[in-house]
Amino acid sequence: MSVMSGTRGMSDFTIVLRSLQARLFSTIVTIVTVAIAVALLLTLLSLKNAGNKGFLRGSGNAHLLVSADASPMDSVLNAIFYKSAPQRPIEQAKFNEIATSFPWDSVVPMQQGDNYRGFPTLATEPEFFSRFQPVEGEPWVFSEGEPFAKNFEVVLGSTVVSETGLRLGAKLLFTHGAGEQGHVHREYEFTVVGILEPTGSAHDRAIFCSLESSWILHAHDRHERDAALAGAGHVHRPPLTEADLLDEDRLITGILLRLPTRAGSTVSSAMQPQFDRLRRDPTITVASPAHEIGKLLTIVSRVDVLFVAMAIAILVGSAVSILVALYNSMHQRRRQIAIFRVLGCSRLRVMALVLTESALIGVLGAALGLVVSVVGTALAAAYLKSQVGLVLGLSVDMRSGVMVLAATALLAAIAGILPAILAYRTPVGDHLRPAA
Prior knowledge:
Largest sheet: 12 strands, mixed
Shape: elongated
Helix content: 40-55%
Radius of gyration: 32 Å
């Protein structure tokens, strides 16, 4: 509290502000400490809620996913969230066997492995846009153009468009692999024929083309390898067509299966029997996207509890820092408090001033933390989008923000109780003597 003469008409809030200004460095450090704790807590809460919604929303309407990945979790992360390209393919004969083994409502084959400027490609059939829904109950919507109808046509997800600027009619080349190991398929140019509306799923960052297009690209690579092994060097070949494809070229990396359901229902009674039957085949991996995502969220929720507990502990620690800062300042401000008392401040008013000062530090720290958390959640969303393919509608829940703001102010006020008591007990006479 600043030393001021003739301050009877001065408001308590002005006194508190001048007190904070008098210890500006200590005040800023304490506010930043509180802000870091609040930002961490709000960011974790926002990520937890948005992550759950994002994963569940993006699983699509497929009941089962068949692949040759190492585990069901890998299968879902690769095929649904585009984490990485599957390394082991499924042969055409196995696909035909699975497709004809049951009267499925839909059977959608997929192949992954190529990319354009880091955006994954998904080779599939045109029925992908009519039979598979990226979000349960929400079919694909084209903002421009239409689905691909022939080879070397592509449809772009909304994120691809916003980050690359590609439009209808644009030409592009696919790249196989990444970094120094990647090579561009320069022999075959693709044309953009469709652009999708945002879905809020990982599919927004994908590029879609026909299976035959992808098979032809890799058949061309096979011809190049065969020519190199034969010692023929680089031989100029005319572009390949579907007629040039062999069975070994017709590979897929995943199959989306949907079982028949009753009208208005998304659940099928045949789900468990068919899941168990397919699992008996050791050459494939069978996953239920919804089940695998549920397992993932269970694992993540256990870690969330630990992180939230750590954030609360940091918040409590910031309250302790407020206590220490104010307590230490009391010893330096006893003369000021004595002057206030002489000017007419009661003990209770002096105590209230200290509590207000403590609470104000908490409020300012919480407000700054709220701003930092908004930036933090945006950065976290961008990271998850680029690394995992998870698209989150990430924002700070204002109800949680208000609750954390109120709790921080209360915690800060509690931290000010001990310094306030010390100010309350400050004897007037002992601290009005002239300073040495």
